[in-house]
């Protein structure tokens, strides 16, 4: 192996070193990631604390490792295909940039899949539910309703503008939401 490597010209040696070193780092990152993402203080997904939340991050450690891995192996493939040195450099560089773009886009879209879990009361407008605790007529007393919001059944405080009190088990629809998160409901007529 050492004899084969020493017999190579400088140009292929550079590509082989880039490909092997970056592939080794890539494998280590993959193993650490699949083992839980943290290995003896090396966090592969570490973010800078002053991060302003820029969604699409092109130059990251993982993207650079992907860039150099693809650059090295595509360069070796070009050399084995007897392409010229300038063409090899251009093709391998473009392949590396494409890989960085794919990885950056992949991480960007994966981050967008995160859900904050914060309940947005405006999502309740138009929802149908049931009165749990009696709601006083003309906003005279706060009651409670069961309404499905954001995929979960919730028990929330409610008021009504209706002239009649809404009794327990009445079917209601949410008309509006006050600034402090109290639902304004109306009874559905059958």
What is this structure's SSE topology?
Layout lengths: L1 H5 L3 H25 L3 E2 L2 E2 L17 H20 L4 H28 L15 E6 L9 E7 L2 E9 L10 E7 L5 E5 L3
Parallel strand pairs: 5-7
Antiparallel strand pairs: 1-2, 3-4, 3-6, 4-5, 6-7
Helix pairs in contact: 2-3, 3-4
Give your account of this protein's structure.
The structure is a single chain. This protein is an alpha+beta fold and 190 residues long. It has two domains: 2-112, no CATH class; 121-187, OB fold (Dihydrolipoamide Acetyltransferase, E2P) (Beta Barrel), CATH 2.40.50.140. The chain contains four helices and seven strands. It has helices at residues 2-6, 10-34, 61-80, 85-112, and strands spanning 38-39, 42-43, 128-133, 143-149, 152-160, 171-177, 183-187. It has a five-stranded mixed β-barrel. The radius of gyration is 30 Å and the shape is rod-shaped. The termini are far apart. Mean pLDDT is 85; it is low at 39-52.
């Amino acid at each position: 192996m050492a004899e084969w490597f020493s017999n190579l010209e400088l140009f292929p040696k550079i590509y082989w070193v880039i490909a092997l070193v970056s592939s080794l780092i890539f494998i280590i990152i993959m193993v650490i990631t699949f083992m839980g993402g943290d290995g003896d203080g090396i966090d592969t997904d570490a973010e800078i604390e002053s991060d302003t939340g820029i969604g699409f991050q092109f130059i990251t450690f993982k993207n650079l490792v992907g860039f150099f891995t693809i650059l090295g192996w595509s360069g070796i493939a070009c050399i084995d295909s007897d392409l010229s040195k300038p063409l090899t450099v251009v093709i391998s560089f473009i392949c590396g940039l494409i890989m960085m773009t794919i990885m950056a886009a992949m991480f960007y879209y994966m981050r967008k899949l995160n859900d904050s879990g914060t309940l947005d009361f405006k999502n309740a407008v138009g929802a149908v539910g049931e009165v749990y605790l009696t709601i006083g007529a003309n906003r005279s007393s706060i009651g409670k309703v069961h309404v499905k919001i954001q995929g979960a059944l919730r028990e929330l405080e409610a008021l009504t503008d209706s002239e009649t009190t809404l009794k327990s088990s009445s079917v209601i629809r949410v008309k509006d939401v006050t600034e402090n998160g109290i639902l304004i409901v109306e009874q559905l007529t059958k």
